[in-house]
Amino acid sequence: MTWICHHKTGELVDLPLYDEDGTALSPELMERLDGMERRGDTRCHAGSP
Question: Structure pTM?
């Protein structure tokens, strides 16, 4: 599970990354996240707080 910030409301929204059986729900997103720099226990996209 991860959180994303809704671009209009600024609300944090839960975003599941895996199905109940462990299958990635969005393989393209997982590939992109895996390629990002890790910062502690979180991954930050450029421009995010």
Answer: 0.50
